[in-house]
């Protein structure tokens, strides 16, 4: 019998926000879209963006072109066949990738945790000289040497068994591969990296994790300081029905409160939250260190980063 997995999709699309129609066929029981009363949106870059989320049961070896509305299209390729890990005898969980708001660096540079460049799993891929990928440390670096404009980066998040350097194993094949598509908008920027907003106060620390019981509500606050300009928005990407209220920006300080209730749902077991901060001159502080995960007592390896990602859930028959 052909193996199937539950894939969780998150996509950031430019405004006007595309409809969710067409993602699931009529009567398709293994497909579910996530309409929300409080959609994730942002004003930067360009005309703004919104987040669309859905899940679908797909073959464990899957290749498809996905249409999101009439103007947004993605080609995705995944490999997530059920594999028993040789190091612990447990069923492997494919890489779990979180999606932050659109990346908008200026002349500075930032680092993001990734894995490898797309090697044939995409259509019309273009390599960029201003992007450096460190395969050993699994990091992507923007050098700052790029003309203003919008660029697309296609990556694959893989999980592998850690093998000691003294091991005689010649080839360490990936257990799974999950696509991550990034949109990078480069803007003219006269300030230095030290001028971007920074997380302060009660903002969750890097790799913070909250364990949430059924029907429990969790609350947290994000605080940022911007020395040169006031913060115009705190852009957020997270699970459906994550409430964001009380955004205030006074002088150099900005704050916003968030809350989430774990109700009955079919969401992934690990639910990441990512923040980005915009000032009125369109500069962005990339606060990837300030992200939290909602977790229901089960840990899935987490690597984060945008434009579309696919999170693999349970292995199905």
Question: Could you characterize the architecture of this molecule?
Answer:
This protein is mostly beta strands. It has one domain (about 5-315). About 0% of the residues lie in helices and about 50% in strands. It has no helices and 23 strands. Strands 1, 2, 3, 4, 9, 12, 13 and 23 form an eight-stranded antiparallel β-sheet that branches. A hairpin with a 6-residue loop joins strand 3 (about 40) and strand 4. The radius of gyration is 19 Å and the shape is globular. The chain starts with a strand and ends with a strand. Residues about 105-115 and about 280-315 have low confidence and may be disordered. This is 50S ribosomal protein L2. It comes from Dissostichus eleginoides (Patagonian toothfish). Keywords: Ribonucleoprotein, Ribosomal protein.
Write a concise keyword list for the protein shown above.
disordered C terminus; 4-stranded antiparallel beta sheet; 317 residues; mainly beta
Tell the overall outline: globular
* Portion in strands: over 45%
The count of strands amounts to: 23
Structure classification: mainly beta
* Rg calculated over all Cα atoms: 19 Å
Protein name: 50S ribosomal protein L2
Keywords: Ribonucleoprotein, Ribosomal protein
Organism: Dissostichus eleginoides
List the helices and strands and how they pair.
Elements: E1 4-14, E2 31-33, E3 41-42, E4 49-59, E5 61-68, E6 72-79, E7 96-98, E8 111-113, E9 116-117, E10 131-134, E11 139-142, E12 149-159, E13 176-186, E14 198-200, E15 208-211, E16 217-225, E17 231-237, E18 243-250, E19 253-261, E20 270-279, E21 284-295, E22 302-304, E23 308-316
Parallel strand pairs: 7-22, 15-21
Antiparallel strand pairs: 1-4, 1-23, 2-4, 3-4, 5-6, 8-11, 9-12, 10-11, 12-13, 13-23, 14-16, 16-19, 17-20, 18-19, 20-21
